Amino acid sequence: QENLVISSWLPPAHPINVDMLEGLVDMMEEATDGQVTGEIKMGIAPPPAQMDLVMDGAADVTIIFHGYQPGRFIATKLIELPGYEGNAEAASVAYWRVHEAHLAELDEHRGVKLIGLSTHGPGQIHSNKAVNTLADLNGLKTRLGGGVSADVGAELGLVGIQVPAPKVYETLDSGAADGVAMNMGERISFKLNEVAKNVYEMPGGFYRGSFAVLMSQQKFDSLPADVQQALEEEVFGEPFSRLMGAAWDASDVRARAATEEAEDNVIVTASEADQAAFAEMAAKVREKILGEIADAGIDAQAAYEMVKAEMAKESN
Amino acid sequence: MPLLKRLAQLSVAVPMTVAAFTLFGLMVLTFTDVVMRSTFNAPIEAATELTRIAIAVIVFSAMPLLSARGQHITVDLLDPLFVRLHMKRLLDGMVTLLCGVMLWFPASRVIDLAERSRSYGDQTEYLNIPTFYLGWFIAIMTFATALVMVLRGLIILFAPHKLGLIRND
Amino acid sequence: MTEALIGFGVVLALVLLRMPIAFAMGLVGLVGFWMETSWRGAISMVSRLIIDTSQDYGLSVVPLFILMGLFVNKGGISRELYAVSNAFLGHMRGGLAMATIVACGGFAAISGSSLATAATMSKVAMPEMRKFGYADSLSTASIAAGGTLGILIPPSVILVIYGILTETSIGQLFIAGIIPGALGILFYLVAVRITVARNPAAGPAGSRTDWTGRMRALRGVWAVLLLFGLVIGGLYGILDFWPIHLTFSPTEAAGMGAMGAFLIALARRSLSFSDIREVLSETTMTTASLFAVLIGAWIFSNFVNIAGLPEALRTMVSELGLSPWMVMAVILLIYIVLGTVFESLSMLLLTVPIFFPLVTGLGFDPVWFGIVVVVVTEISLITPPVGLNVFVLKGVVGDVTTGTIFRGVTPFWAMDIVRLALLLAVPGLVLYLPSLM
Ligand code: NA
Ligand code: NA
Questions:
Q1: DSSP assigned state of A176
Q2: Which of A20-34, C14-28, C95-109, C331-345 has the lowest mean pLDDT?
Q3: At residue B1, does pLDDT exceed 60?
Q4: Which of A224, B95, B150, C71 pairs with A95 at a CA distance of 20 to 30 A?
């Protein structure tokens, strides 16, 4: 029996730990009749160190957020673009498929085995100041997670504050930032209902956020062939990516309910006019990012069209 | 010998000056960032990454001198016993030597990791500074620390009267 | 679990053999992690921690708070603090010792270190108490004990390190330290009263200052009030009003405090160029040594983590059927015993990786546990045979024996135990202020 060490840098109760990584363990156990299992170890190293840890065998599996390593990941920004229609499950499945068809060519995860890709649900702006219109975002001091959210933030006129996710509560609470860009589900994980009582919601989101789950290639190669095959067919890739997407969606639903229930929390949905205004900004960001991805050497436009088509298929 | 001594002194004086300037700069940067944000709603967006670089520079600039002076935090509970047994110098020398030798491994690994991050094109978020520069700096200073500790260990063991050579205090 | 316990034993042995604590923890963590995974994995983990810890944004509070304390010191603020406490309390029996306690509390509000607080106040308060014929046991004990407040009353380097190690909010920890710190002052005042009640000759009354004198003395401490108000007010978010929105994170609070202290010292013309150089270089050295131990502690804690000690301890606790409070009692007892011989930071670094997951798993509040750990750490500073604050006193004063100081400290130590019991019985004393944030 193989007990994989799964390294995680997120708070213990976060859906990434409770639903996604534990879900991965369940899936692996089921696919291999218990021959492969895993246990989560928290806090071994900060987020940008995770890929190195797996590459060198200090841990067997980890999850990374691509935006934390600027420069290293470019093609993965594709899934973070604003304007896609559909939930995180549809987007995560489409993400895996487009990776297989286009992005894998760039081999941005070289050195490790990529076993799942996902994006969280639509990213919204959570603030402790009232935000009712797109114009209210101008000058708002906002914590952005990196990746496409930074480009969108620049278009919106947000003033970027850089802090790691676990410090978000403190940063908002102390007033060092007025807001934070995150998907709805993180309202529970980072207690935003207490320190960011307003949600300004853009249907489809301002951006999304790209994650990958990585496994040590060496560890994978050391497994018996039948176990490898079972994992490849039943767990890794699309099935696991789908599970992660569904977990993000479930967390969004839970957090929305909690926010609507909390009397002092409000969710403001962008007006039609603001949606149209943002669509223009989104188009600009899209053009810029697709340009970057094309420069990296793949057919960015075709990849973008594929994500939209696959998401539409999944959403029906 | 005077030349060697001068060289040894310079090799700690230069990093200490760097560390001092960086620390002062960090203080001014944090102050300016807060003032700009509080009064003009215009924080310095690169403040976070500059702060991160600054601490690494401060810490690793000071590390060789700290180790040369033997000022790492140590528990001296049994010192009276070791003194009575005439073992203190032997113990100090061997421990310092061992510490220096053992630092060699992570120091060379830090170089590998820096080169790896260079091959992936890692850079900072706002200023697009390649991260491997700092990796190399940390590696070089860790090597320097290792070297200093090996030297200090040898001097304690074999030439305790020369200890002043690597001290600057 | 066995591996982790053996590892802990080896660290203890190495540390006692004079290996720097950073290296002892790092070495054992490296070798242990190697045995659990691979050499390549272990050395990579260690190297990544060296790279990442030295770039941890949250840790930038460490040099900045140290810097603030040292600049403050150069500004001559300790003398003024003592003058004002003395003006109000000096005429009472034991009054000078009481003034010392209060001045230590005031100095603690701008310094993050207990040793610095004790060292600074001993230079100011000791000659004064000698002049009025105070017993050495009382005068040195009041400084040694008062000095321990340095790490509880914010800012506090120990609380920062606890916050970083456990990912607990440093802002909340700081705010949580205020009431227990104030209680500490109060209880130490009681300890002085007890001492002079039993032996009136130990602390004769000093001279009385009239109200004009008191007001004049009060004017001297504006700088302390300003700095403390700036740092804590900014952290707490009470300076957030139009047109300037002064609210900050701990790092920013430290930066503002350091800059403020620098400007105050400059304005008072008490800062020469060589002073500045000395302060900067002392800060970088202290910072580097703290980072070294932090990196070592993190390496060790990764080994403990991957060897499964936290889970094993949890299982053991549930199998033995221990209630959470029994576990807490055992942990605190271990702290008090370790504290007799261990230096505060080493003790924190060695134990927190092991106890923290257990304690939070049992449902204790991480902020509350942090404060309780700091209070037991304070106790360790004044208990024999190794009490660092006592040694600081001995170093500065010279002609007293450590035995005399330890004897004088006994009532203060007893009051510490009472305070600890109170914080255990009424967690609200710790958690009320942070809950308002
Ligand atoms: Na303090
Ligand atoms: Na002690």
A1: S
A2: C331-345
A3: no
A4: A224
Element (H, E) at B156: helix B132-158
Question: Which of B36, B45, B52, B113 to probe the A interface (max A CBs under 10 A)?
Answer: B45
Q: CA-CA distances (angstroms) from residue A104 to A35, C305, C336?
A: 29, 35, 57
pLDDT at position C114 is 84
Q: In the numeric block, which tokens belong to residue C108?
A: 């603690």
Do residues A98 and A306 touch, judged by C-beta distance below 8 A?
A: yes
What are the tens digits of pLDDT across the range C114-172? 888 888 888 888 888 888 889 999 999 999 999 999 889 988 888 888 887 787 888 88
A159 bridge partner residues: A141
Nearest to A9 by CA among A39, A37, A38, A41: A41
Q: Is the pLDDT of residue C81 over 60?
A: yes
pLDDT digits 0-9 by tens, C235-262? 777 776 666 667 777 888 889 999 998 9
Which residues on adjacent β-strands are paired with residue A37? Answer: A3
Cα distance between residue C203 and residue C297, in whole Å = 44
Chain C CB contacts of B60 under 8 Å are 54, 288
Which value, to the nearest 10 degrees, does the dihedral of the CA atoms of residues C53, C56, C62, C67 take? Answer: 110
Ligand nearest to the CA of C181: 1
Provide the chain C residues 62-81 that lie in CB contact (below 8 A) with chain B: 63-64, 67
**Inter-chain contacts counted by CB atoms under 8 A, chains A and B:** 44
Q: Which residues surround ligand 1, an ion (CB under 5 A)?
A: C 108, 150, 153, 156
CA distance, residue B121 to nearest chain C CA (Å): 17
- Cα C228 to averaged position of ligand 1 atoms, centre (Å): 10
The predicted pLDDT at position A142 comes to 92
Interatomic CA distance for residues A48 and A41, integer angstroms: 16
- Helix ranges (DSSP H) in C2-135: 2-16, 21-36, 39-53, 61-74, 77-89, 95-108, 114-131
Q: Which two tokens stand for residue C91?
A: 């005429």
The reply to whether the predicted model has a pTM over 0.90 is no
pLDDT at residue C244, as a whole number: 65
Check if the interface score ipTM surpasses 0.85: yes
Tokens describing residue A201: 């919601």
All residues at 6 or more sequence positions from C224 whose CB lies less than 8 Å from its CB, including other chains: C72, C77, C80, C81, C106, C107, C109, C110
For residue A199, give the 3-state DSSP assignment: strand
* Among the partner residues B20, B78, B138, nearest to C284 by beta-carbon distance: B20
Place of tokens 């200890």: B163
Largest CA distance in chain A: 58
Least CB–CB distance from C252: residue in A5, A44, A176:
A176
- Selection from A150, A43, A174 nearest residue C56 by Cα: A43
Name which of C115, C119, C120 is nearest C156 in CA terms.
C115
- The residues, any chain, with a CB within 8 Å of residue C303's CB and separated by 6 or more, are C4, C7, C28, C29, C30, C32, C33, C36
CA C331 – CA C351 distance, rounded (Å): 10
Residue C172 identity (one-letter amino acid): Q
pLDDT at B169: 37
d(C-alpha C316, C-alpha C312), whole Å = 6
Chain B residues in contact with A176 (beta carbon < 8 A)? 37
- Under DSSP, is residue A87 helix (H, G, I), strand (E, B) or coil? coil
Q: How far apart are CA A240 and CA A238, in angstroms?
A: 6
Cβ of A16: how many Cβ atoms within 10 Å?
25
pLDDT at B168: 40
**Per residue in B109-153, pLDDT tens?**
999 999 999 999 999 988 999 999 999 999 999 999 999 999 999
Ligand nearest to the CA of C178: 1
Residues B100-106, mean pLDDT to the nearest whole number: 95
Q: Identify the residue with better confidence: C398 or B99.
A: B99
Q: What is the DSSP letter of A69?
A: S
Do the Cβ atoms of C44 and C69 come closer than 8 Å? Answer: no
